[in-house]
Structure formats: C-alpha cells, structure tokens
Design brief:
With 518 residues, the chain is of the alpha+beta class. It contains 18 helices and 9 strands.
Length: 518
C-alpha cells in the first residue's frame, strides 16, 4: 500500500508539473520569427556563411528577440544590447549553460554530451584559475613581457612588412605561451604554434553542416565511418587527436622541466605545484583540468588577438588622416624622446575612440558563443522554454549606429552614449571571457608603439601606384581582414633608436603573487 501511495503521489506530482508547464506556456506567447518548415524548421533559411547578417535582417523584421527552430531545437537570437544584458547578465543563473555539442564531446573524449558545457563545478574551477591570473589587477604584471615582445614585433615589421600576419601570430603566441607554459617562441614555425594552428583549423573544419547535424540527431555519432556521408566523423577523430596532442605535449614539457629542476614558473607549473599530493603527483582529474584550461587559454587568445591587430593596421592604411591624428596626439604626450607607457593612457583619448571603432567595425567574434537556458523563463510576455539555445548577434548590436560600415572614430566623441565594444565583444554574464583584460592590454601596447615609432601606408605596385586594400573580412567563428599588403617603416631615425636601444631582458613569471589561491 505504501509503495502504491508513493508511486501515486510521484505520478501526481509529475502530472501537475507537466500541466503547470503547459498552461504557463499557453498563457504567454513565443517570440516572433520566420515561419519554420516541417521537420527541418528554419535550418534551410540560415546561411552557412555570415549568419549574423541574416539574423540582423530578421531582427529588423520581427524585433530584437527572434525565435527559430532547427530540427526541433528551439533557438532565440538577441539583436540588441538591452535584451542580451537583461537575460545573460541579470539572469545569468538561468543562462550560463552551453548547448549540447555532441561532435565536440566526441572530439574531446567526454562520455556525456553535456558534461563540459554545464555551468558546474568544473567550469567554476577553470574560471577561478584563469581569473586569478588574468584579472584587471594581476594582468598588469605581464606588461614587461608585452613590452619585450612588442619591440620584437616592431623590428620584424620594419624588416619584412609583407609577413605581417606571421609577425602578429608570433607576438600573440609568444606572450600567451610564455605565461601559460614558460615557452619562448621565435617564429610561427615553433612546435607549439603549429600544434595549436592544426587543432584550431581542424576544429573549424569539423563545424561543417554535416557535422552540426549530429547535435540535432545524436544517434548519427554511431554511424560506421565507412559510409560515404560520414566524413564528418572521420574528421572528428583526426581533430580529436590533434586537440589531445595540443593539450598534452606542452603540459608534459612543463612537467619534465619541473622534474629536472628548471623551466621557471608559469600558469601550468603554478597549478601543478598547488594540486600535487605529498608524493608530488597530480591526480588524473586535476591533470585533465589543467591541460584543458591551459590549452583553451592559448587557443582562445591567439586568434582573436591577431584579428584585432590586423583590423587596426587595415583601418590605418585606409584612413591616413586618422593615423595622422593619432601620431599628433602621441607626439604631444611622448615627443620623440621616449616610448609610450600605460601611464599615458588617460592622455590619449582619441586613441581610445580609434580602438573602440576597430572592435566595432570588424567584430572579432560576430556571434559570440551560444548559451543554453537552464529553466523555463518569461521575458516581457514571451515564454522561453528550458533547453533553448540563446545566441547574441554582437555584430548587429555594435552596428546599430549611423553608417555602420564606415570607419569613423569620431562617432564616439559625437555620441558618448554608444556602447563601448569592449563591454560587448567578450560575452555576457558568468560566461564572459576571463582573459579580456589581457587581450585589451595587448591591443593597447602594440597600437601605441606602432603609432609612436612607425608610419603605416599603402603598398606600391610595380607601376608606382598605391594599392588600396579592399574592405573584406573572412567568415567564420573569428572574423579577420582578408590578407592585404601595406608599407610599415620607421617614422624617423630618432624614434627608431628608441626601439633599437630598448633592452630585451628575459621575462620572469611573477610566481610569488600567484601561488596563494583557492
């Protein structure tokens, strides 16, 4: 009898819950959006390239919150900053999961598709580690490293401006790899740089239309690899191996250095020291967490840093009047007797406008990373069901201004109410990028030193005519300017002497300030 009563009460509670959810959803309406087709929903209406443009069109037609369905999975796209902040910032406790990525789970070797995306203990642990090293206060300790690598970058650009992208990649790799693994990077041919480039390239390629179907039909992951339409699974296996190597190899070298009594301190070595047991060993779970957080830290920092720096240089090539104003402002602060320092930042307001405009003009990550609603929610009079995928159209938010395709730093002087891109491009809520302060300092360090010491102009063709680069950006997760040529040369002998006379001392990781954390 007791068993029957318990079962009856459980069934009754379940029925009441289903009924409450049904009537709650009926009381509110769904957000508007384009009419879905049977079975496939809106899948065929979403372009594979530059979907942010189509989402912006729908935003203009249906409003700032657009509802889509893809093979039964509900998605909402937020096209305004108010909607993004209301849901992802103010209600972050409900919107901090990531959607299920079955393919990515296979790549990373996780047995459960949602293990790595839940806002749970593992995520909070990684975030706590990274935030401890890269918060707005502690990140200032990396400035000597940034200054050193900036000088190396300037010399490389002056020597071979045609290899600009490789020089920028080397800078981004040199700074983050030194901090993460205490590895010195001489060129883009460095082993670690190649490992990350291979893993990143394969991961992007694995995001093909066929591969993403696995997220909507998880059973597809069990299909044998010999079938003609399962290339995505073979690619996934190759990508998984590349990601595993990227995580394991640099970690193992840090461990070897520690055992040999050398190598110096780094993000990884500090965590290993913190988490080792009395016998000096790290548990498999801790080792996996350290490898994952360190590998992700580098993979995330490198590509977006290069994108922002490429955009700055392209904008200066196309807008020489803007660059002249920047040089005049810099000269009024530093003259030709010293290089700029971070203490000069408040004295360079026009530069702040230019950097904002670069990040607005070409948003590094146009759609950000998706969130997942953890519980049913109501926004305005719209019903949002648990499990809904939430996308923020960051490009649409930052292009909601006059003449959005025009590069115009003065817009931030004329309209100070425009959103600062630096408060938007790094995400929202508990999923905001913890390395954002380091990324900002990289962009500021390089741009100021370029302005102070170098002239950036259009390249000249064989007929002596200037080459105007087209304003074209790549499509994908990270948006880059398409390759272009330009001239980069020292402004004057006096200013170049400041670069040549800068001493490039070896950078020492400030370990004493990082060993004490929970």
């Amino acid at each position: 009898m007791a068993f029957s009563l318990t079962r009856y009460l459980a069934l009754l509670a379940f029925a009441v819950g289903i009924a409450a959810r049904y009537f709650s959803s009926r009381r509110y309406r769904h957000p508007p959006g384009p009419r879905p087709l049977p079975f496939v929903g809106n899948a065929l209406q979403i372009p594979f390239t530059r979907p942010e443009n189509k989402f912006a069109e729908w935003g203009a037609q249906y409003g700032d919150v657009v509802r889509l369905k893809v093979f039964g999975q509900v998605m909402i796209v937020l096209n305004t900053l108010d909607a993004a902040r209301e849901l992802l910032d103010k209600r972050s406790s409900l919107y901090s999961d990531r959607p299920r990525f079955v393919l990515f789970s296979e790549l990373m070797g996780w047995s459960h598709a949602t293990t790595h995306v839940r806002y749970g203990q593992q995520f909070r642990r990684h975030r706590r580690w990274i935030n401890h090293f890269f918060n707005c206060r502690t990140v200032t300790s990396f400035r000597p490293l940034q200054a050193k690598e900036t000088v190396v970058l300037l010399k490389s650009l002056a020597e071979d401006p045609d290899a600009m992208i490789n020089h920028l990649k080397r800078y981004a790799a040199a700074t983050i790899l030194k901090i993460t693994y205490n590895r010195d990077v001489e060129s883009v041919d460095d082993l670690f740089v190649k490992l990350v480039d291979k893993a990143a390239t394969l991961t992007v390629e694995s995001g093909s239309p066929a591969a993403t179907l696995v997220d909507f039909f998880p059973s597809m992951k069990y299909l044998p690899t010999w079938l003609p339409f399962t290339n995505f699974k073979r690619n996934a296996l190759e990508t998984r191996k590349a990601v595993e190597v990227m995580f394991r190899v640099p970690y193992d070298l840090v461990i070897k250095d520690m055992r040999d009594g050398g190598g110096g301190q780094s993000y990884v070595s500090t965590l290993v020291e913190k988490l080792s047991n009395v016998e000096g060993h790290v548990s498999p779970e801790d080792r996996s967490d350290i490898q994952g957080s360190a590998g992700t830290l580098y993979a995330a920092a490198e590509d977006t840093t290069v994108s922002a720096l490429q955009t700055f240089i392209l904008a200066m090539v196309l807008n020489p009047d803007v660059y002249k104003k920047l040089q005049d402002e810099m000269d009024s602060v530093c003259g030709d007797q010293r290089l700029p320092t971070h203490e000069d930042r408040l004295s360079l307001p026009y530069l702040e406008c230019v950097l904002k405009e670069c990040l607005r003009w070409n948003v590094p990550v146009p759609m950000g990373l998706p969130h997942r609603l953890m519980e049913d929610d109501v926004y305005r009079d719209w019903y949002l069901s648990s499990g809904t995928t939430v996308l923020v159209n960051i490009r649409s938010i930052l292009h909601d201004c006059d003449a959005p395709l025009e590069f115009n730093p003065e817009r931030y002087i004329k309209n100070p109410d425009l959103p600062d891109p630096r408060t938007v491009i790094f995400g929202f809520g508990r999923r905001i990028c913890p390395g954002r302060h380091f990324a900002e300092e990289n962009l500021w360090s390089i741009s100021t030193n370029l302005i102070a010491t170098m002239d950036i102009t259009k390249a000249i063709d064989e007929n002596g005519d200037p080459i105007t680069p087209p304003v074209e950006f790549t499509t994908g997760f990270v948006s880059h300017p398409k390759p272009f040529k330009c001239n980069i040369k020292p402004r004057s002998d006096q200013r170049w002497k400041l670069v040549e006379q800068t001493e490039l001392d070896d950078y020492v990781f400030p370990s004493s300030g990082y060993k004490r954390f929970n």
